[in-house]
Amino acid sequence: MTVPVSASPGAALRASSRPAPTPQPLRHPPRPAPAVKLYDWPFLFVLGYLLVEFGRPHNWFPPLGLMRPGMFVLVGGMLGLMARGTLPLKATLAKHLLAFWCLMLVLVPFCTNNRVAFNGTRDFGFFLFGALLPMIAHINTYERFVKAIKWWVYIHVPLGLYSITHRGMGVGSFLTDENDFALALNVILPYAFAMAFMEKKARARIMFFGVVLMLVAASTATLSRGGFIGLVCVFFMLWLKSPRKVVAAALVGVLGLAMLVVTPASYWKEMQTIETADQEGDTGAERLYLWGIGWRMFKDYPVFGVGPSNFQYNNYKYETPEAAARGYHVWGTVAHSLYFTLIPEYGIVGTTLFASMLITAWVRRRRVSRRCRDALASGTLSDEDRDRVTTLLQLSAAMDSSQLTFLVTGAFIAVLYYPHVWVLVTLTVVLENVAAKVLPAPVAPLPTVARSWSPPRALAGRTSVAGRTAT
Length: 471
Description:
The chain has 17 helices and no strands.
C-alpha cells in the first residue's frame, strides 16, 4: 500500500524543522468597548420624567405649566428610543405593558364614551413609549439604577414636607387628594428604607432614616384610613423581608413609636371609624355602593368590559331605586377602587393580563433575590461586588413591599391609571437586567459524556453467522 507523502517520516522531519510562521499583527486591532457615561441625554430625560411626574414642579410654580414640561420629557424619551434604534421589548414584562396598551386600543371603538377612552389610551401610549420603555432602555447600569432610585426618593422629600404643612393635601394632579397622596408616600417609603441600609457613611444613613420618619409623618398627616392600612403593610413587609428580623423589628418599633409621638389624636380617632365605615353616611358606605355597581357591570360585560375610563359613564345604569330616591346619583363618579375599576372596564381578559403582569413581576424579583442570596453565600465576591449584590437584594425587597402596599391601599382608590404600578413593573425589568450584569454567571453543569457501546472481550474477534467479524 502506498504511503502518502505527508505521512512519510522524512516529510514529518522536514515539517518539524521549519521555523514557525511569525504571527502578523492585525491591521485594525479591536477597540475596547467604551465605558457608558453616567449621564447622557436619554438618561437625563428619564430623570426628568420622574421629576415632572412625581415632583410636579409646574404645580409648585404654575407658570412652568405653560412650557408643557410633561410633554417635553415624554417626547425626549421617545427621541431617546429612536436614537437607540430598537425597542426594548425582549423582556416578558415589557411585552405585558405593550399588550395592555394594545387591549386599550382594541376596546376604544366599543366604548360608550369613545372620546374619553381615546384620550386615556393616547395618554397611556405616550406614557409607555416616552417613559416606561426609555427606563428599560437607558437605566442599563448599576450606577444609573441606584441614581434613579435615589432621585425618585429625593423628589418625595418636599412632597412629604408639603403634606405635613398642608394637612395631608398634595400638590396637584394625582397627588391632590389625601388618599391618593397617602398611597404615593407609602409606595416610596420602602425605597427610602432600603437606601438607609445601603449607605455606608453614617451621615448619609442617618439622613435617609430621617427621610423615612418624615414620610411616615407625612402619610399620617393625610388622615387616610386606606393609607393607614397600607402603612401597616409596609411595616410588616419591612420586617418580613429583612434578613435580620430582630434588628428589623427594633427599627419598625422605633418607627411605630415615632408615629405615636408625631401623630395627633384626631388621626387615631379617624382610624377608629374603620369599624363603622360601612354605615350610612360614611364614605365607606359610598364605596361599597359603587363596588356593587362595578360588580353588576362586570357581570353584564364579563369578557372585555366597558372599555378604558368608561366606568363612570356606565354606572348610572346600575343605580338602585333607593339611592335614586335619596337624590344620590353616580354618573361621572369613579369606582374608588383599583379592582372595581379594572374588572368592569377590562373584563376577564384585561384582569387576567394585569394579574399575570404583577405575578410575573413578583416571580422575577424572587428569582433575582434568590440569585443574590446564593452569590452572597458563596463567599467569592469582592467587597465592591458584595455591596452591589446586597443593594440589589434590598431593592428587590423594597419593590415587593411597594407592590403590596399599592395593592392594599389601591383597594380603596381608583389608581389603575396612576403611574405607580406601571413604574414598579418597569423597574422590575431594570432590576433583572442590571442583576444579569452584576451577579456572577451561574456555573453550568459539566456535560455528561455518553459511553459508546463496545462488545465484551469474549466476543472480540468472533465471527458472526454471516461470516463477518463482530464489532
